Amino acid sequence: MISLKINNIDVKGKEGDMILDVAKRYGIDIPHFCKNDRLERIGACRICVVEAKGQQKLIASCCTPIREGMEINTHSRRVMEARRTNMELLLANHDLNCVTCKKNLSCKLQRYAEEMMIDEITFSGDKRLYEVDHSSISIRRDNNKCILCGQCTRICNDIQTVNAIGIQNRGFHNKIAPPFGMNMHESACVNCGQCVIACPTGALTEKSDIQGVIDALRSDKFLIAQTAPSIRATLGECFGMPPGTPVTGKMVTALREAGFDKVFDTDLAADICIIEEATEFIKRFKENKDLPLITTCCPAWIKFGEQFFFEELHHMSSCRSPQAIMASLIKTYYAEKIGKKPEDIVLVDIMPCTAKKFEIKRPEFTGEADFVLTTVELGKLFKLLNVDFINLEESDFDNPLGESTGAAAIFGHTGGVMEAALRTAADWLTGEDLKEIDYKKIRSMDTLKEAELTIGGKQIKACVVHTLGEARRLLEQIRQGTCPYHFIEIMACYGGCIGGGGQPLPTDKERLIKRTKALIDEDEHKDIRKSHHNKSAIKLYKEYLGDFGGKKAHKLLHTEYYKRDYV
Amino acid sequence: MQILRKTELKAYKKAKKIGQKGVIEILSKKGLVGRGGAAFPTARKWQFAIDTKSDTKYVICNADEGEPGTFKDHLVLEKVPENVIEGIIIAAETIAAKQAYIYLRGEYEYLKPKIQKAISSVLKRSGSKVKIDIVVGAGAYVCGDETAIIKSIEGYRGQAYLKPPFPPVEGLWGKPTVINNVGTLANVPQAILFDDWDPHLRLFSLSGDVTKPGIYEFPMGVSLKKLIELGKPKNPVKAVYFGCFGGCMPYKEILLTPENVCGQNCVIGAGTIIVVDNTHSIVDMAETIAKFYAFESCGKCTPCREGSKRCLDLIAKIQSGKATKQDCDTLLDLALHIHETSLCGLGQTATNHLITALKYFREEFEQKCKLH
Amino acid sequence: MVQDLLLPILKHEQKKSGYISEAAIKRISIQTGIPVSRIFGVATFYSMFHTKPQGKNMIEVCHGPSCHLNGSFNVLKSLYKSLKIKPGETTKDKKFSLHTCSCIGCCDKGPAMLLNGKQYTLLDETKLKAIIKKCRS
Fold it and tell me: Which of B:67-86 have CB within 8 Å of C?
């Protein structure tokens, strides 16, 4: 243990702890922009500078390790002035259009400016001026608001290994963008939105579809919403509720109040997805063909695979994502059932994810889902429509597409899809109704997790990864023929969908754990915790889809992948 | 000049004989310190790399002499490249590195054939198995910083990063790496070989408003007046700049030791002396140097990226006659801020010239300002 | 191996083609496995790399303080007179590109410049005219 003083308080920390982190444990918040716990500390923004007794210069607290006997002042006059000047320097190069900014009131730059009482900017002169990049279906990029903290590009390069954007030029002309002046749409961007949740300002935000949804709500069309598994665990945060507060019932009521005619649960589609995927897995496992099988619920991962690993795509499950399954069922089965033309139904998907906006625009899904709203957008929509979310009564999803199991609930966090799939696959392979269904090993936040089970003397090796960098390593193993697994779950976002690009900010590890817990609680409190026991799903197969993995199921619930060129 | 005495591989042979321990001992005893500006004891730097266990280690010769007004490494590389190469193979074999790089600044690329020739000749004659490659830079002052050199050789943008870990522990591709300046490595064989080698001799690069500019070799503590008189200035001398990063002082007699120069709020650094006579404006100098820093800032940290540009904006405002005295205060505050909060050595020293110019020659700035 | 390093590869490309084109970066990316965005970031970082086509002759005028004191501004003025271009520009006939650069270590012989990497020192208007004339012919 190392003892030191911070603001005259005796504090202790471990060897290697950074000043900023130790201070935080003792309730002292030091402002910072470029620090991200998932990234290497670079000490570039210099907002976190503090004064250390005996040192001539101010030091960056985010990346200075504590030493015995240090005396740190985090808010001395000198420190506050330095921080203020750095803020002013950043603001002197910012467009300052706060009121019309999508991050208004949720922007870190704005918050610090307010906290530091910056009412005037000393510096003037040239500003870097850029055109706003609207080209991407998922992400809006406005470099005029960028403060060059570099989190987005480090996430994109180091964690996701997509390398769509990078730092260019030098000095004052530094810029974060795709190469060659390309726009985001032309770039290798997979729309995961991890850059969006890392961005402290309004430089990277989700592309908004709220206006389109409002137009639809005010039309005479039949409005249906489907909500992804993770939304119920995060939407409350948009209304100031503690992270991990489940708000399923309120969410459904709110959607009805907002004007949706029916509210369906993507969880049902998740159960169907498991039924199809488990069927597919067992077939491949028995034939020992095209293993490992990789799950395909994540649209960012799909685009990543199509770009970088086309030769390995036969390992991907042909099963659609739950979103796309539900969309397909609504515009076929449900439309027939209620006697409406598919084009008279407007389907709005409530998703945790910016990449889902891209997914619904894939040509093979034309005419299915109409809009994707992220969790954050849904929160904004409710506020816009004056829905008093906090005080709403709870209500249930509509039928027949509203029933779900615990297995579907956990789709929203890393490892959940695999856990759900293993529950079903194990039952089917043994022909029993197994009682041991908790795969706790794959619930952690580690980016690579393994599970093994032995059935009839045969071992199944499963693997769960999140973040695309981790996926890339696995895919490279597959390419080289050294991958030891039979079944793999890949999610692009850290933590799975609860850490998606459309989730409320901040999305940090602490919050991800709380959100995960909400989903695990939901699973544990459900009477039915296996997808293949979902009564509505079974009924659907009987009434409409036919056999598991059958011809009609394939037509409606499966898809294909295409090679994509990338830069 | 001492630095130009050829060692003809005799030092290398001696180093082989006395071995790793012997080399460290002799360099430590003779008091060889880095010639890049920081004056870190060479033997200690090497010892760190020796103490770090690793199969692979590297030596980098820092030939990115970018400090404006400095051209001593240029002289050494031109006149005695063999000494530098000999220094490199001694360093490499002492720390057990098999590969060495010479990071030659892009602006000096015309020296490459000469250095290449020296490498072949020295390796052939010495029989050393050390592999020496020249990596030519592409125009970035910040690559004089050792961490930025590492990034540059690794094929990244040459941006400095935070230490620790220090390069002798974790450097190029994560391996222990000794980075020494050209002048340091040229002195290694001399310090090993010659009993009369004088550790105090330094090369001073004299330029600016003098009719006899050039490299002068003197011991630390030489009289500034004597040095400048050797340069035969045309007009009365007004100020002396210790390179761009070292700051400036009004011309007067001092003995050039690090402490004395520091007493004038300047840094002697690599012995750069730029003479400014009374026909030139300090504000013009400030503008030229501020332009240099705004151009060379790597852009990684806020104060240097944004601040160096705002310094330039403020100086331009002063030059235009639209500024007030308050703008001079703002400029000084900003200069101090950049000095205090920047990430790397470049940023931390980028405004020394302004801080000192505003201390010693403030009236020149104020003369250009409006009255109120 | 030095030939595997990105910096020498880009250097070679710059020398061969006079600039580092989009196609070259894509090709280098395939050869080295280094992502395009990173190579582009490196190519735009160093001042001696250019991502836009440059003139046949590359003039880089030293802008260091010693050359400033010895009249680098006059060098730029003379060059403007004969070439009608300012720093950062290329002549219409694509024969010359003009840039200013940081100190080239010729402080004892300023004002100085690099022409296609070769140093020219103690410049004055007559000398510059002769140099330009020689390049034109």
Answer: 67-71, 73-74
pLDDT at B254 over 90: yes
Round to whole Å and give the CA distance between B238 and B364: 12
Q: Which domain holds residue A449?
A: 211-557
Cβ–Cβ < 8 Å for B188, B35: no
In this predicted model, what pLDDT tens digit does every residue of B168-195 receive, in sequence order?
Answer: 999 999 999 999 999 999 999 999 999 9
Q: Which range of residues forms the domain containing residue C7?
A: 2-43
| Residues A194 and A222 reside in one and the same domain | no
Q: CA–CA separation, B148 vs B343, rounded Å?
A: 12
- Take residue A198 and report the two structure tokens written for it: 């890392």
- Assign residue A141 the CATH number of its domain: 3.30.70.20
Q: Are residues C31 and C85 in the same domain?
A: no
Cβ distance B130 to B16 under 8 Å? no
Q: How many domains does chain A have?
A: 3
What does A269-338 look like in DSSP terms, one character per residue? HHHHHHHHHHHHHHHHHHHT-SPSEE----HHHHHHHHHH-GGGGGGB--BPPHHHHHHHHIIIIIHHHH
The domain B2-193 having CATH identifier 3.90.70.10: the answer here is: no
Angle between helices C125-136 and C72-83 (to 10 degrees): 40
Q: Which residues of chain A have pLDDT under 50?
A: none
Verify that A46 and A61 share a domain, yes or no: yes
Please report whether residue C48 resides in a domain. Answer: no
Check: CB of residue B248 under 8 Å from CB of residue B240.
Answer: yes
Q: Which of C37, C44, C46 sits opposite A165 (nearest CB)?
A: C37
pTM: 0.95
Which pair of tokens denotes residue A97? Answer: 């259009």
- The residues of A assigned a catalytic role are 277, 280, 297, 317, 356, 359, 364, 497
CA distances from B32 to B7, B181, B289 (A): 16, 12, 31
Q: Which CATH class is domain B201-277?
A: alpha beta
Low-confidence ranges of chain C (pLDDT < 50): none
